[in-house]
Amino acid sequence: MEGKERPVCTECGRVVYYDPKVSTVCVVARDGKVLFIKRGNEPGYGLWSLPGGYVDRGEVVEEAAAREVFEETGLEVEVGGLLGVFSEEGRPVILVAYEATEKGGTLAPGSEALEVGFFAPDALPPIAFPRDTHLLELWQQGKAQRD
Question: How far apart are alpha carbons 7 and 47 in whole angstroms?
């Protein structure tokens, strides 16, 4: 159908459309350093990534971004400017990336993080997802334009 193989119900003939998953991530800076979590699950177990995760059905994306940062790091943030929306052919995840400003909380790893910490963009730990490096470049470009 429509040039693609799609699952069809054998009883009624209805086509089943699988929805993509929406994920969100935030760049949170403090004193020129950026917040990362050491991942406690796959993919990327033991490597570092920007804090983020899946948006729940019916949840506002910006609220999901703030919730995920809090759940993974203990920090409360205000979600700010959009860094971009990203997808890759053949992958079911759409990533929505934001800047966020720290507003409170206590820095501590959540249930999905082994460690949390702030790192200088030129001295990052081993990164789980190459996209995080790209997001930091976008964030730095935007920061330079604002300064």
Answer: 36
Q: Which domains does the chain have, with CATH numbers?
A: 21-146 (3.90.79.10)
Task: Give the number of other CB atoms < 10 A from CB of residue 90.
Answer: 5
Q: How far apart are CA 69 and CA 100, in angstroms?
A: 9
Taking 70 as the pLDDT cut, the residues of the chain under it are 1-2, 143-147
- Strand 113-119, strand 93-105: pairing: unpaired
Strand ranges (E), 8-146 = 21-30, 33-39, 48-49, 52-54, 75-86, 93-105, 113-119
pTM over 0.85: yes
Q: How far apart are the C-alpha atoms of 55 and 21, rounded to whole Å?
A: 8
Instruction: Find the radius of gyration of the CA atoms of the chain.
Output: 17
